[in-house]
Amino acid sequence: MALTPAVTDLDQLKDRPTLSALLAWNQSAVEGAKFDRNELSIYIARESIRGAVSQLKVQGLINFLSDLTCADFYPREPRFELAYHLLSIPRKERVRLKVKLSGEDPVIESLVPVWPSANFFEREIFDLFGIRFLGHPHLRRIMLPEDWEGHPLRKDYPVEGFR
Amino acid sequence: MGHLTANPVVDTSGDKTMILNMGPQHPSTHGVLRLLLEIDGEIIVRMVPDIGFLHTGIEKTCEAKFYQQVVPLTDRIDYLCPMINNLCYVLAVEKLLGLEIPPRAVWMRVLLSELQRISSHLVWLGTHAMDIGAMSVFLYCFREREDLLRIYEMVSGQRMMTSYFRIGGLAMEPPLGFFKTVKKFVDAFPERVDEYENLLTGNRIFIDRLKGVAPISKEDALAYGVTGPAARASGIDWDIRRDMPYCGYENFKFKVPVATDGDVWARYLCRVQELRESQKICTQALEGMPSGSIKAEAPKVVLPDREKMKTQMEALIYHFKIVTEGFTVPAGEVYQAIESPRGEMGYYVVSDGTAKPMRVHMRSPSYANLQALSKMCEGALIADAVAAIGSIDIVLGEIDR
Question: What chain B residue is nearest to A39 in terms of C-alpha separation?
């Protein structure tokens, strides 16, 4: 199981059903793709994420939202990378959609209208990363107390000393 | 009423309904789960879970540790099946490293994971039955669980926080007499399950209390992210062990119990059947246990044997390097999902090429299943909420992390 270099060429990955469906739907929404360690990641433009997910859902290519999370690449800009882990139960295949978000304006459309299960995941990201989800029915802190200051999973959040 | 209206989703203005606070200190919430129930008489109109009481920031702590130091943290997430957490994490890091594991370690991992599944389901069965009012089942379940805890102690030195799986294999060779003890337990176990079923499956009070309670449809289960036995009870025929095999599960033969009713009773039946299937996997693992090493041949990642470390200069250097500097992991990201007793447990690990993970995220099955609880309990009686909480088998440690 030696590591092979990641494939990032869109032409080579075109035959993947999820990627070809997204390219056929809206070419400009796909910013890139990566096939690394047997996992396919597709970078989606920020404005198109809800459209892309609902498109995959409507076409029946995806029927389960496994996980939704975020990683902070501070001090790089755009610093946040959201990762949507989607699963197709009949096809037994996973795909990861990724969206890059800048530090100044960490706002993205909520996925709750498409998938109710995104509710808690998005609240957790809002709580710990401070990313706002537009159209979320109940965007409040979930892990930390309501009056907590800051978002602990950000890389610039102090981990030592007094608050 | 001030403290009860912390969550504005619950409408307190109506004069027909009232708000009932359940938890966080409540014996039937299986931890520190607080539920706000909006009730109309005895009927639940709406349920809002309030979580976070156990939040310890494990994901943030992981970012400050070397890769091998994260393993003990993963124990604490789902404390009913620590080795399954270990397994998910080490599989994710091994995938990042591109590391191949020797067959004996793989089979040992499967054997221990299934024993953990059994002990986790036993805790569920005991507490679930106790919530319903069948007190004695708890004692029987914990009798068998005690045997299992002794087995974990034998192999790792710890009863609960085992940290036995390592990146690249296992911590140490199982002690003499280990397989004999496991075999004794595994051979006797089907009879024990018969015993539990004698007490519960034909029990009219138990059936009346569970049948038709808190159902969820297949479509809703998919929409709300329900996985594991709770999803299979709603007719979703999906088990990661069978459908996307990891850690050598393709070598084992087992059935995946599925039901269609989606109620608490169906979830009960699915889990009890899973106890039997796990026992079968354990038997197969014991029979086919390969011999050989329990660690991968990767001196830069896996700690050398103590003996070698004391006699060989090179091994001593590697030991020193791994302990003081950790080992670097090639940059990249992986999402590794496995079937935990509660559903899909996933570890999303991002590496930036250093010795510490840049991000470790745990997708915990209870977290997603809890969202569906509100849906299940709409229109149910208050007393049935207790049955519903027990049936999705939540562990607050992995919800709050």
Answer: B334
Per-window interface: A 34-63 vs B, CB < 8 A:
36-39, 41, 63
| Dist. CA B278–CA B274, nearest whole Å | 6
Do residue B108 and residue B159 come from a single domain?
yes
DSSP B65-91: S-GGGGHHHHHTTSTTSHHHHHHHHHH
Domain count, chain A: 1
Whether the complex's predicted ipTM surpasses the cut of 0.95: no
Q: What is the mean pLDDT of each run of 10 residues along chain A (163 residues)?
A: 76 82 84 86 90 89 90 88 92 91 89 90 91 89 88 85 64
B-chain residues within 8 Å CB-CB of A117?
Answer: 223-225, 368, 371
Tell me which residue range forms the domain holding B200: 58-400
pTM comes to 0.91
If we measure between CA atoms, which residue out of B164, B143, B139 comes closest to residue B152? Answer: B164
Q: Taking a C-beta distance cutoff of 8 angstroms, is the pair B84, B342 a contact?
A: no
* Option in B51, B97, B224 nearest A142 (CB): B51
Contact A37 B335 (CB under 8 A): no
